[in-house]
Description:
three-stranded antiparallel β-sheet; single chain; mainly alpha
Amino acid sequence: MPDNRTAVDSPIPLQAEPGHLIRRAHQLAVGTFAKTHGKQITPVQYAILRALQDTPGIDQVTLADRVALDTSTTADIAARLDTKGWIVRELLPRRQRALRLTTEGEAVLAEMLPRVEPMYGQLLDALEPAEREEFLRLLRKFVHLNTPAPDDQSDTPDEA
Length: 160
């Protein structure tokens, strides 16, 4: 029997697809983070530590929202950070937990923070200063426009 299937040409080359480019940008960012800070801490753990530095005693659900994670993933990461001795989790009414940095967690951040700005400078070094500003502006806009409102329970932005 003859094969009647036809090859479907992709309208966009892989190297130009937004999803592929976002994934590659993420790989570059994570790789640069690991080269700078080592593998003892991940970018997501760093984000949680920074959020706790900014808002000590925040509850786990609010923390999850701040760092754009689901609550179960946040709980899992918080448990690992607790085991490392970098945070403490205090049980609140209604089974919520308040999270705080420990002295050791504060020391981890204090060691990391001087390397953060140079790390991002290195990551964005190939761009001209005006391009960096525009790139970051567009990233913020992209994330904002594709982030559901806190009261929206769907996994996708409104289709209206």
